[in-house]
């Protein structure tokens, strides 16, 4: 059976050279291989095709048959690697914490073990009739979130 490690070993150097990064590699028991790649500038369909051909040329279908799908995660797909967070700085995201709380805001900063989002909320100010828009910053550890996805807009 083809392994995830084999695929990573095959594409790792090429991906790095191309300025992209691996988001995920999955190999199903029936040898269906799914590769998710991205870059800070996004990934084109033609690049996915190029990478697919590169993988096929480095595996032997005569020895072991397989099905292959290479794509980019796209908006709405949960983040899996830190590079996705870095790519999305100053873009809107939704965070679902391990406790089930939801936060939406702009991803402002990515640190070693944490990331920061800035959320705008209308808040009732004491002594004023109207609610006012205020900014709140929240810092999350990568391991305290269940899911983070990029949004089209807030």
What would CATH call the architecture of the largest domain? Roll
- How many separate structural domains? 2
Please give the CATH class of the largest domain. Mainly Beta
Count of beta strands: 8
- Helices, by number, come to 3
The SSE string, one letter per element, is HEEHEHEEEEE
Domain Ribosome maturation factor RimP N-terminal: 10-75
Pfam families: RimP_N (PF02576)
Protein name: Ribosome maturation factor RimP
Function: Required for maturation of 30S ribosomal subunits.
Describe the overall structure.
The protein is an alpha+beta fold and 154 residues long. It has two domains: 4-71, K homology (KH) domain (GMP Synthetase, Chain A, domain 3); 82-150, SH3 type barrels. The protein has three helices and eight strands, in the order H-E-E-H-E-H-E-E-E-E-E. It has helices spanning 4-17, 45-58, 82-87, and strands at 20-27, 32-39, 67-71, 92-97, 102-110, 114-124, 131-141, 145-150. The strands form two sheets. A five-stranded antiparallel β-sheet has the order 7-6-5-4-8. Strands 1-2-3 form a three-stranded mixed β-sheet. Strand 2 (32-39), helix 2 (45-58) and strand 3 (67-71) form a beta-alpha-beta unit. Helix 1 (4-17) packs across helix 2. The chain is elongated. The relative contact order is 0.15.
Task: Give the gist of this structure.
The chain is α+β, with helices and mostly antiparallel strands.
List keywords for this structure.
SH3 type barrels, ribosome biogenesis, 2 domains, GMP Synthetase, Chain A, domain 3, alpha+beta, 154 residues, single chain, 8 strands, Ribosome maturation factor RimP, elongated, five-stranded antiparallel beta sheet, 3 helices, 42% strand
């Amino acid at each position: 059976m083809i392994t995830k490690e084999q695929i990573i070993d095959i594409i790792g150097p090429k991906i790095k050279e191309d300025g992209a990064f691996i988001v995920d590699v999955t190999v199903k028991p029936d040898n269906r291989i799914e590769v998710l790649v991205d870059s800070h500038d996004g990934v084109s369909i033609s690049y996915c095709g190029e990478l697919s051909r590169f993988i096929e040329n480095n595996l032997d279908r005569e020895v072991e048959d397989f099905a292959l799908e290479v794509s980019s995660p796209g908006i709405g797909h949960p983040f899996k690697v830190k590079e996705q967070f870095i790519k999305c700085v100053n873009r809107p995201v939704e965070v679902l914490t391990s406790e089930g709380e939801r936060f939406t805001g702009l991803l402002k900063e990515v640190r070693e073990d944490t990331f920061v989002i800035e959320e705008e909320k209308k808040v009732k100010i004491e002594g004023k009739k109207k609610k006012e828009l205020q900014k709140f910053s929240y810092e999350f550890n990568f391991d305290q979130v269940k899911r983070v996805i990029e949004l089209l807009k807030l």
